[in-house]
Amino acid sequence: MTQINVLRMTRATGTTHFCASWTRGNIKVKMRDASLEKIIALQKKTSHIRNLCILAHVDHGKTTLADSLVASNGIISSRLAGKLRYLDSREDEQIRGITMKSSGISLHYTTGNGHCGLLLLQHHVLLMYSWLRAVVVIAGGNEYLINLIDSPGHVDFSSEVSTAVRLCDGAIIVVDAVEGVCPQTQVVLRQAWLENIRPVLVINKMDRLIVELKLTSQEAFTHLQKLLEQVNAVTGSLFTSKVLEERAEKDAEAQSSCTENSSADQVYDWSAGLEETDDSDLYFSPDRGNVVFASAIDGWGFRIHQFAEMYSQKMGIRFSVLLKTLWGDFYLNAKAKKIMKGAQSKGKKALFVQLVLDNIWNMYDAVVTRRDKEKVEKMVTSLGLKVMSRDLRHSDPKVLLSAICSQWLPVAQAVLSMVCEKLPCPAEISAERVEKLMSVGARRFDSLPEQTQELKKAFLDCSAGETAPVIVFVSKMFAVDSKALPQNKQRPLTQEEISQRRELARQRHAERQAANQSADSPRSADAGGTSTQASPASGAVTDALCAQTEALSVKAAVEEENKEHFVAFARVYSGVIRKGQKVFVLGPKYNPSLALRALPEGCSVADVLPSIPHMSCCTVDSLYLLMGRELEELDEVPSGNVLGIGGMEEFILKSATISTSPACPPFTPLNFEATPIVRVAVEPKHPSDMPKLVRGMRLLNQADPCAEVLIQETGEHVLVTAGEVHLQRCLDDLRERFAKIEISASEPIIPFRETVIRPPKMDMVNEDLGKQQKVAVIHQLKEEHMKNPESVQVDSTGLVTLTTSNKMATVGVRAIPLPEEVTRLLEDNVELIRTMEQFSLFAWEDKTLDINQKILENIQDFKVKLESNLQGHKWRGAVEHIWAFGPRRCGPNILLNNIEGYRRPSIWQCLEREKETERAEIRDFDNSIVSGFQLATLSGPMCEEPLMGVCFSVETWDMKISTPLAQRDSFDEDSQPAEPKYDDQSQRSDIHETNSNRSRSRAEAAGSSVDCYGPFSGQLIAAMKEACRYAFQARPQRLMAAMYTCEIMATAEVLGRMYAVLSKREGRVLQEEMKEGTDMFIIKAVLPVAESFGFADEIRKRTSGLASPQLVFSHWEVIGSDPFWVPTTEEEYLHFGEKADSANQALKYRNAVRRRKGLYVEEKIVEHAEKQRTLGKNK
Fold it and tell me: What are the chain's domains?
C-alpha cells in the first residue's frame, strides 16, 4: 500500500530526481548517480527499457530539454541545463546554436508505484493565487533504462533524424508554444508515422506566452487548445491517408471477386472505413497523459495527472473525475461544490486555468515581472521549498525562477514518467513494423525464404537467449578521435598500482646510485685505457639509439592519436552481441534466398564459406555504451538496446544489417527527407596533398549519412550536400578532421535541367507574337537548320533524319514536350520504373524476377495514370509503345517506338506475364538505339545538363548491312568448341543460357562492319544520340531550375525588408498568413537554388534576426525566358539590350554553366581598351 506523507522538500537541485523514499522519523533519500553497473544490469530487463528520440523543428528546445533529462542523472549540474547543451559536442554546434548530428545517451530513472512527483496542495481554490504543499509518494520504485537520442531540427540534417528514428520505439515531439506546428514538425511526425513508432508531446517554451506575448491565463488556455488541434490535425491526416489506402486495396479485391460472381446484386458501400477504425490512441490529449506542458529553460514541466492527484486529496473529488475534467470546457461551481460543463458559454474560468495556469502565472508575476521579494518568500515558504540566499539576491530574476520551479515542478520527472508509462518497450514491437523492416524493395514478406520468415518470431520475442539469432541494425557510422575511445583514456591509478610504481622508482634509484659508485671506484681507474675511452663512446651511441627509438615511438603514438576511428550507431533487435563474436555483415543489396541456395544447410559464421555477394564475415572488435560525449566499454549487449560497435569501418559504408544467421534479410533502407542538391568541386591547395584529400573524402562519405562524394568524368572530386549549412559543416570536417589539409572549394555547382516546350504565344516583353514575327522566327530556324551537316535533315514538323557515317543506317527522331503531370509522375515513381527495367533485363536473359503483388498493383496504377495524363490524338497508344525511360533507364524522359512493323517486347511485360502473349522479337542493335537515347538525355545540347520532360519518338529506323547476320551467326557457331558433357541437367541448362546470351551479344559484335568509321553498333549509338540532340534543338528550348520551398516566420515590421530580399533573388511569394493569436506572419515562397546561397544570412541581417528561413528542395521549374533569344526592336533593347535594366536570366545561367564546364561561350570581350578622352581636357 502506498504511504503518503506531506513533508517539507529537500532542495532538489542537487538530486537526480529518482523517486526517493522518505520516512517521518529517519529521513532517508536514495539519490545517487546512475552507475555503469546499474545500467548493464538494466540492459537485461527488456520490459524496463525505453528507446526514444527527441524530434522537433529547429530552435524549439530539444537540446535544452535533453539537458534537463541528463541533469536528472547528475551527469551535469541542473544550473547548467539549457546553457551547456551537453549533447552538442561539436564546436560548430555550440557556435551556431543548432544540433547537427544525432547523439545518444543512456539514463537511469526510478519511479514509484503510484503517481509520484513533487505535487502541490492548494490552501483555497478560489483565492487570487493558491499555494500548494509537497506530496511525496513513498513506494518501492521501478527502475528503467532510458536510451535517449537527441536529433537535429534543421532541415539540412533531416537524414540524421532518419538514422535516430529507425533505432527507437517511441519519440518525444517537442513543439514551441508560440510558433506551434512548423514545417519540420510535420516532417518529423511523418517520419515517426512511417517507422511505426509511438509519439508523445511536450509543449515547450510556455514561459514565452507569459513573458513575450503577455497573454492572460485564459488566453493561453485557448491558444494551447488550438495548438493541440494543429498537432492532432497532422496526425489525423496521416491516419486518414493510411485508412484510405487500405480501403482502396479492399475495394480492388472486392471488384475482382465481383467480376467472378457478376450475377449477384452489387451494392457499393460509400463509407470510407474511417468510422469503423479506432483512432483514439493516436491523438495527443492531456487527460490521456501523453502531453507535458513545460518550460525547459526554466526547469519546470507537468502533466495534469500530477495536479489531478493533488486536488483529489484536497477537494475530495475522485482522481478519475478530475483527470477527465481538468482539461476541457469544465468549471468549478463553488456554491454547489461540483464540476460543471460549459465554462465558455457561461463565461466561467475553465478548471485548467483556475487550478493550474493561474498558479504558474502568479509565480511569474511575482518573480519576473514585479520582483516582489516578500511575495516570493511567502510562496517559497508555503511551498516548503529551500532556496539559497544567493539565488534570492541574484540580479537576474530567471535564476530565482529556475531555482523555485525546478523543485516545484521538475521537468525531467514529468517527461521521464510519461515516457516510462506511455512509450512501448522493445518487446512490444508490432508485427506490421517487423514485416516492413524485413521487406526490401520489390520483395514481399510472403516471398521471402521460410528460414527468413521464421526470424519474425525472433524480432517479436526480442529474446536474449543463447539460441536466439543475433540481429543488429546499423543506422549510421560516426567518427571518433582515438583519444576519445575508452581504451585510450587515462584512468586514475589504484592504491596498489601507486605502491607498485613507488617501489619500481625506488629500485631504479638504488640501481643508479650503485652504478655511479662503481664507476667512481679505484678499480675502474686501474683498468686499461682502451676500455675507459670506449665506455663514453658506447654510452653516447646508446643514448642516441634510445633518443631515436623514443622519437619514433612518439611519432607513432601521435599518428595513432590523430587517427579517426568509426563507431557504428546500432540497435540489437534479437540475441546478445558479444565482444570478439564472429558475425555476418549484410549489405543493403544482400539477397537471403540466393545465399541460402549457395551456402550449405546449417552453416555458421565460424565455418569456411564461399563468397556471397554483399555479405562479409567479421569479428566484433569492441562494444560501447553511448554516453553523449563519452563512450563506455562493454563486453556484451542483449536485445532491445542501443549501442556503439567499434572496428566496423572496413565492412560498413553507411548502414548495414549484422546477424549470425545468413537467412536474415537486410533492413529496409532509411527514408531521407532531404535531397542532396548542393554540389561543390573540391581540390587541395597543394597538388601533393591529393592522396590525403581522396582519403579524407572517403572518410567523410562514410561519416555523413546524407553526403555523397563523386568523381566526375573531368576528374573533379565533387561533394554533394543537402544545403548550405550542411555544406559548410562537411567542408570544415574535411579540413580539420578527415583530410587535415588546406583545400579550396569551387563556387556551388548549381544543377539545371534542359527541356523543350510548345511554341510560345508571347514574346520576351509579354506581347503577342504576330504573323510577321512568327514568320521571322520560322526563317531564323530555317537558317539554323541550313548550318546542319549534310547527313542531318530536318523537316517542317521537327522530324530529324540522320544517317550513320558509313551510310548503312538511317534514324528518324522527333522531340515532343511531355505534360508537366507526366514529368512529375515519372519523377515520383523512379523505384517502380527501376523494378520494371530489372524485370525486362531478367526476361532478356530468360530469367524470372519475383515481384510483390502490391508493387504490381502500383505499376498498374502508374500505367493507368500515365494513360490518363497522355490524352489527345498525338499520344494515342503511346503508353504501350514506350521503349525506354532515361537517363540511367529510370529518368523523367521517354523513348517511344513508332516504327512501322517493329513490335518489340513491352516495357510493361511484368504486368502481362500471366497472359499468353505472342513472343515479340527484338531487332539486332535494339540496345544501341536505347544507349544513344540514354546518352542524349544524360547531357543536353544547351549546356550538357540532363534532359527532363522530353519524349523522343523514333519514327524510322532503316539498316543496310552488307554481310547477313545469319552467316555471321553460323560462323560463330562453327568456331565454338565442342560442348562438354554434363551429368546434371540443371548445369547443362545454365551453360546453355550463358551460351545463348553470349551468342546474342556476339551476333551484334559480328554484325558490326568494322570499317574506317569503327564498329557499326558504336556508329548507331552516336547517330541516335546526335539525332536526339538535333530533334531537341528543332523545338523551343528552355532551362529548368531547381527550386526551394521557403517558409519564413517574421513580424509585421520586417515584412517589407524580407520581401525586398526575396525579389532581389528572383523569389516568388505564394502565400502569406497571420498566425492566430500572435503578431507573426508565415510567408511561403519559392526560390531558385541558384539564388539561395547567402540568402539566410542576408535575410537575418536585413531583418535584425527577426526572420529565419527554412529552405527545402521542392521541384523543378521551367525558366520562362528563352536562352537563345536576341533583342531586335527598340523596346526589347531597352529591356534586354547592352544597357538593360534586367538581364536574360536563362542566358545568364546557361553561360555560367558552360563557362564552368569549359564549353564555348558567345560573349563580347574587350581587349586592349583605351581610356576615353574628352575634347575639353586632355588627361
Answer: 34-112+141-247+282-299 (3.40.50.300), 304-409 (3.90.1430.10), 431-485+561-659 (2.40.30.10), 678-749 (3.30.70.870), 771-911+926-960+1015-1034 (3.30.230.10), 1040-1171 (3.30.70.240)
